[in-house]
Every structure is written in structure tokens, then in C-alpha cells.
Specification:
By secondary structure, the chain is of the alpha+beta class. The protein has a single domain, classed as Double Stranded RNA Binding Domain (2-Layer Sandwich). Helices cover 25% and strands 35% of the residues. The chain contains 1 helix and 4 strands. The chain has a 4-stranded antiparallel sheet with strand order 3-2-1-4, with helices on one face. A hairpin with a 7-residue loop joins strand 2 and strand 3. The radius of gyration is 12 Å and the shape is elongated.
């Protein structure tokens, strides 16, 4: 099963990226690149959703900016 969740990506002053989500409580991921951050966020989200066993539908909403943006993340649950 796949779900789409919105995550917020922010480039921190230290040069790393931080991913959070208002839709998955507790999701926080940090990486040196956007790709690395997304991979970590996907793993964290999958584990959190499995623990929460939440079956609600989530709608995607994309907002982009150079250093601060939202994007959907597909995870298998």
C-alpha cells in the first residue's frame, strides 16, 4: 500500500536539510542533501505510520521555493 504525505523541506544555515511533516506527528529527518533527507524521511514516516496504524486519506499540496518548500513523499506501508 502506498500513501502520499506532505513534508516540509528547509535548508538550515549549517547547510543541511531538515524535513518535517504536519501530517505525520514526530517526523523529523535531516540530511546533507535533499535526496538523503527524503530517503531518511521516507523511512521515518513509514515506521511512524506503521506504529500509528492510521488509515486516513492524505491529499498532496506542493509549494516550492529555493531553500524552503513542501512536497509529497510516497511511502509503502
Amino acid at each position: 500500500m502506498e500513501r502520499i504525505i506532505n513534508i516540509h523541506i528547509e535548508k538550515l544555515p549549517e547547510g543541511v536539510y531538515l524535513a518535517t511533516s504536519d501530517e505525520v506527528q514526530g517526523l523529523v529527518a535531516q540530511g546533507r542533501t535533499i535526496t538523503e533527507t527524503l530517503e531518511i524521511a521516507r523511512d521515518v514516516a513509514k515506521k511512524l505510520l506503521e506504529a500509528q496504524d492510521d488509515k486516513s486519506d492524505i491529499r498532496a499540496n506542493i509549494i516550492t521555493d529555493k531553500n524552503n518548500f513542501d512536497m509529497p513523499l510516497v511511502i509503502g506501508v
